[in-house]
Amino acid sequence: MNLPSKVPTIPIDGCISYEDWLKGRRHRREISQLVSPGIIRRESSSKDRRLKALYHGERGLPFTPTEKL
Amino acid sequence: MDAENIKSALADITAEQDPTIKSLKLASLCSTLWGEQGVELVVVGGSAIEILTEGAYASGDLDLCHVNRATLPIRQRQEIMGQLGGKGGPRNWRVAGMYVDVLGPVESFARTPFRRIRGPYGEVLVMKAEDLLVERVLVSVYPGENPVARKCARDLAGLALDGAVSMNWEEVLWVANLPEYRNVKECKTLVNEVAHELALKSPYDSD
Q1: Given this model, what pLDDT does residue A51 score?
Q2: Nearest residue to B48 (alpha-carbon basis) of B146, B158, B124, B157
Q3: Nearest chain A alpha carbon to B130
Q4: How far is A10 from chain B (nearest CA, A)?
Q5: d(CA A55, CA A63)
Q6: Is the CB of A15 inside 8 Å of chain B's CB atoms?
Q7: B203 and chain A: CB distance < 8 Å anywhere?
Q8: Which of A17, A32, A42 sits opposite B59 (nearest CB)?
């Protein structure tokens, strides 16, 4: 039996509040980084032209660093 | 939602610099306005995975589908997105400093509910974690190795094993066993692998 999560769970039934979703962000990022480290934003897609025009050559806004979540 | 509230929401979303919060807020606003016209929207694809995992994966666009079979007539879509100052259409718009795509009816097999987040401007439906996991496992292997899809699948599995995201593990196998996927073995292998790395019990351990 695994232990309950340390943060509010995104449930199957019911609704998680925005505040609880925000509270869990850092933990979710930490687990994601643990199982597959690094930022893996796709390098290209069919939407590149419009994305790179909007985001100054990038494919989206920069991700907030884990320590600031 | 009245014009004053829309204006204030748009100012907030436009100023938002965190890509995941920006997506969630915009999904919340769009869902409310489309919902007022009887169409339920759901966040799908990379945007859904990002909201569930914080995996630093999604690009700067928001992919939405409609839960109802029928969408809105083009004119009505343009009017709603026009209320948001949206540019373009009739299936994708530039709104509040990002792109929104409304792709059509959602493709979902799992019998579990969409995940729900009470967003700042109304409730947001997010694609079912079971569908997302099975789909990403498939894409990670077929037609060839895909490391980005594999990261997404591993993130989802890790967070579900941790308990931060609820997952119906039996439903995962039910979906994976459908003719559309036929990847039960690959799903079990990936979940077991992540569980062992995290020193957690896997729902698919044989003992």
Answers
A1: 80
A2: B124
A3: A12
A4: 5
A5: 13
A6: yes
A7: no
A8: A42
B52 by Cβ neighbours in 10 Å (0-12 / 13-18 / 19+) ranks as buried
Could you write out the DSSP letters of every residue in A19-68?
HHHHHTHHHHHHHHHHHS-S----S--TTHHHHHHHTTTSSSPPPPPGGG
The encoded tokens of residue A49 equal 């032209």
Complex-level ipTM = 0.94
Which pTM was predicted? 0.94
Sequence-ordered list of residues with C-beta below 8 angstroms from that of B181, at least 6 positions apart, any chain? B109, B134, B135, B138, B175
The verdict on A18 touching B (C-beta cutoff 8 Å) is yes
* Residue B207 half-sphere exposure toward CB, CA atoms < 13 A: 1
* Secondary structure class of B87 (helix, strand, coil): strand
Does B115 contact A at CB distance below 8 Å? Answer: yes
Q: Give the pLDDT confidence of B22-67 residue by residue, as tens digits.
A: 999 999 999 999 999 999 999 999 999 999 999 877 778 899 999 9
Backbone phi, then psi, for B165, in 5-degree steps? -125, 125
CA-nearest of B201, B175, B198, B197 to B186 is B175
Tell me if B164 and A29 make a contact (CB, 8 A cut-off): no
Strands B61-66 and B87-88: unpaired
Which residues are CB-neighbours of B63 under 8 A, at least 6 positions away?
A: B43, B44, B45, B46, B47, B48, B101, B103
Among residues 34-63 of chain A, which lie with CB inside 8 Å of chain B?
34-36, 38-42, 45, 47, 50-51, 54-55, 58-63
Residue of A nearest to B25 (CA): A18
